[in-house]
Amino acid sequence: SNGRGYFNVEGSHTLEKFSNDVARDITDPETKLSVWKRDRLREISNARTAEQREEIRKRADLRIPALGSGSDYTAFLQHDGVASLNFGFGGEDGGGIYHSIYDDFYWYTHFSDTDFVYGRALAQAGGTAIMRLADADLLPFEFGDFADTVETYLKELKALAQKSQDDIRERNREIEEGVFQATSDPKRPLVPPPVEAVPPHLNFAPLENAVDALKRSAAEYHQAVEQVNAKSGALSASFAEVNQLLIASERKLTNTAGLPNRPWFKHQLYAPGFYTGYAVKTVPAVREAIELKQWKQADEAIAVVAGVLEQEAALISSAARKLAP
């Protein structure tokens, strides 16, 4: 449900730049800033480190979160591989009434968007996005932000695997040193955890190579679009042909076998977590295997995701070549 406050966007990162451009052109009805600028300033305020603030200030586009579960988009994105976005305002009206008996017209008009101005702003954002998509000669997919996001996922996965190793090494050492026995109350003793085998090193090389290929193809496509925008030459293919590839780009991120134990979820980058309800897990087959200490499955999933990304990179390069004069 829509509310009063900040503009929130979640979705496919091939549309991250597009959603940022839409947000730049929508005015917040109360502050009169663009909703993009207000979101950017909020992110600076909420950043925990100097490095995070620096990235927000330097990066051309605001990062958007990935989509988890939601009946409005799950079937489209996570089963069929249709690039999707979710827009909404909120954060300043308290909330807490969703799907309750208090979620009614009286509450909304007295405690939420009482003047319906954020409903109007949401209609402007959604309408602007739809019209720009419908009227675009070349669909506004962009792969630089997408490749950058996938690279951050890779870094997170490597850090997660390293943390698992470090945590188990430390716990084993504390068991050997007698830390748990010494700190257990003799009158209410606790059983120390068992010694665990230190996790093996995972082979991230296929994923690293795939991310490199994705970054190269994204740069290639960006250059081709720049040349088209500058009208530097005739196209080797019609926009319609390129658009068909762009539409298929999200499909390439799916796998017919689906996720381990969840074959309905085909997308290899975005899915609700197995145990997290609505909340998203990115690169779920790899991330959840690491979390569950299923190391063989993690290595297998790395290879699967790498293959999907290699296919995506090949499609992006193909689109770039079709745009080349």
Structure description:
The protein is mostly helical. It folds into two domains: 5-135, 3-Layer(aba) Sandwich (Aminopeptidase); 144-323, Transferrin receptor-like, dimerisation domain (Transcription Elongation Factor S-II, Chain A). It is built from twelve helices and four strands, in the order βααααβααααααββαα. It has a two-stranded antiparallel sheet with strand order 1-2. A two-stranded antiparallel ribbon has the order 3-4. Helix 7 (144-177) packs parallel to helix 11. The chain is globular, with a radius of gyration of 23 Å.
Strand-helix topology:
Blueprint: E1 5-11, H1 16-24, H2 35-46, H3 50-58, H4 74-79, E2 85-91, H5 105-111, H6 117-135, H7 144-177, H8 179-183, H9 205-229, H10 239-251, E3 270-272, E4 280-282, H11 284-291, H12 295-323
Antiparallel strand pairs: 1-2, 3-4
Helix pairs in contact: 2-3, 7-9, 7-11, 9-12, 10-12, 11-12
The first-to-last residue Cα distance is 46 Å
CATH structural class of the largest domain = Mainly Alpha
Label the CATH architecture of the largest domain.
Up-down Bundle
Radius of gyration: 23 Å
- The low-confidence runs, each spanning 5 or more residues with pLDDT under 50, are none
- Beta-strand level of the residues, as a percent range? 5-15%
Shape: globular
- Write the CATH fold name of the largest domain: Transcription Elongation Factor S-II, Chain A
Mean pLDDT: 95
InterPro entries: Peptidase_M28B (IPR039373), TFR-like_dimer_dom (IPR007365), TFR-like_dimer_dom_sf (IPR036757)
Organism: Candidatus Acidiferrum panamense
Keywords: Hydrolase
Protein name: Folate hydrolase
